[in-house]
Amino acid sequence: MLALVSAFLAVSCATKAPEQETAVPGTDEPPTAPASHTPAASVAVQTMAAREFPPVTGPPGRLVLLPVPRMVKQTGTVHAIPGGGPQMRLDGALAGTRVREELLAALEGVRAAGPTAGGGPVVSVAVDPAAMPHPQGYVLDVGADGISIVAHDAPGAFYAVMTLRQVARQYAGLGRLPGLHAEDWPDFPHRGVMLDVARCKVPEMATLYRLVDLLAEWKCNELQLYTEHTFAYRGHHTVWEDASPMTPVQARALDAYCRDRFIELVPNQNSFGHMGRWLQKPAYAHLAETPGGGDLCPVDPGSIALLESMYAHLLPNFSSGQFNVGCDETWSLGKGRSKEACEERGVGRVYFEFLMKIRGLCREHGKRMQFWGDIIMQHPELIPEIPDDVIAMEWGYEAAHPFKEHGEKFAASGIPFYVVPGTSTWNSLVGRTDNAMANLLNAAENGLANGAVGYLITDWGDGGHWQFQPASYLGFAYGAAVSWALDANRGLDVPEAVDVHAFEDRAGVMGKLAHDLGNAYQVSGYIPGNSSVFYALLAHKVEGMTPRELRAEDLERTIAYIDKVMARLPEQNMRCTDAALVAEEFAWSAALMKFACRLGIARIGNSRKGTSELGPEAKAALSAELRPLIPAYRQLWLSRNRGGGLKESAGHFEALLEKLTVSGN
């Protein structure tokens, strides 16, 4: 593993730094990246239809599907795929959709190399709600005489093709498909992912398109980009000017790309708490509940006026009829300018009144409001007052989060709600695998039991957004699976599914490696909530936190575990388009995890004092280990993401390095 990191560092240091971005003259649009930094569209935007699918197979005789259909059986027959073009009968209801294009791509990948005799396969795709009564559902038959799809609607036909695509991936180049019969439809009507683009990391468009392709294949139909300040709001450029934000043009392009793949791009803008990026600016500081705080003051008319200005520029770029306005974690409410109102009417009531004003703005734009449900859950007497055109988002990220109890309260009042678990990758570097799997399953079980209308997998970026996107694939995959068909996917072999349908690893190594590395957080025995031992050692105000219960031998054992897991990395045989980058990302993350452990060992050996109080030998060894990781981090970041936020994210490592630098070195 260290050899791989060293090789990558050598390449990184020799790589030319990206050119400076140039501003768009005379507009509020943020800078555009030069061509040398942003890949050409023909390279960056690889649609599913354009991708090659090398033969990646699971165990012989068994199909690996993600999600597993609620009912699927192999019939024992074989359907040959001759060289001619398919004879396709497509329902007129599917005109203008990608169904035909995706079908052709799937079948093209199966054809055997070289010339073959005979015409193409017979393919029939029909939309018939009477034959398949479940929305988004389908029946797929592959037999000796052809391929038949009967769907409830256009999304159902698309999902049938995605199932066929996954079968085809495992029979690539063989000239045949296995006979099978599948009947399938979703448990939750809304199934999606929320990606945090506010905490430092705004992905490049190519990264977003790639993620959309994965999620569409895994039958997700909703995407949200969590935003605080990373949208290029007209007239508010001082807030986002250094953040490389999404522009209106980019939002519309992503909206169209999602819509073509039956994914609803739901706008997301926090609108009450978590407004610190705005309120720290002089032009907006007067709207804060408390000086220097991150919450808007709900009794200041200027707060709603600001939101009205923001929504007017944001919402026209989205075709979705929904809008997530956030409003979580309003910790300072009632402690500042709204104190008198809260004492008079109650904190919950003041919160609710402001929430209803925001709802009014949403309705003016024809949007149905979603909001985070944590604050209203602290005032359950107000839940029955929530209008039924509002959707509560019941979130929680630990394995034992009370989805059952909270879901019952929303259900009892007839309030539509989503369950919102997470990938557990933030504050962890590579995830907390066991916690994530339990959290995702808990949400699916109790959301389904209490009639939740949606299931949203969150992928946050707290603490500098140090994790790389592939660390989240396990959580995305399992959440997509259990939200589609819980009973069929409860025991899904997630590493295997991710190997076949994300990493495309012929060796079957990378999924298990990601899974096991994500469990390194448990080895030391110190398991903080919503975080990991690695963040505790790295990120506590630079000087570091060394918990009393943490012993040096626990950290030595963690290093040995990481080495054992990463020893399998050279065995991987990934064929995904970003295979080399994925390997580098995991290698870098493992190197930083080991550095965190050694930093903790040094502090424990120095009476648990802060980093700056370590002796010169310890500092020299640790700084030599950390120093090359920082430029490597920058290069890896820019491989998938925009430059805005990188300075802040990498700045913590640089501050830590400064603490470790011995005078004269």
Overview of the molecule:
It is a single chain. The protein has helices spanning 2-14, 41-44, 99-110, 154-169, 205-217, 237-240, 248-260, 276-279, 301-314, 339-345, 347-364, 374-377, 403-412, 433-449, 473-484, 486-489, 494-503, 510-517, 533-538, 552-566, 579-605, 616-626, 629-640, 646-660; strands at residues 71-80, 87-90, 122-127, 138-143, 146-151, 176-184, 190-196, 222-226, 264-266, 322-324, 368-372, 391-395, 417-420, 454-459. Helices cover 40% and strands 12% of the residues. The chain folds into three domains: 71-184, Chitobiase, domain 2, CATH 3.30.379; 190-484, TIM Barrel, CATH 3.20.20.80; 511-660, N-acetyl-b-d-glucoasminidase (Four Helix Bundle (Hemerythrin (Met), subunit A), Up-down Bundle), CATH 1.20.120. The chain has 665 residues and is α/β, with parallel strands linked by helices. Helix 3 (99-110) runs parallel beside helix 4, helix 9 runs parallel beside helix 11 (347-364) and helix 21 packs antiparallel against helix 22 (616-626). An eight-stranded parallel β-sheet has the order 9-8-7-14-13-12-11-10. Strands 1-6-4-5-3-2 form a six-stranded mixed β-sheet, covered by helices on one side. The two termini are 27 Å apart. The model is unreliable at 1-5, 7-27 and 31-60 (pLDDT under 50). The chain is built from 24 helices and 14 strands.
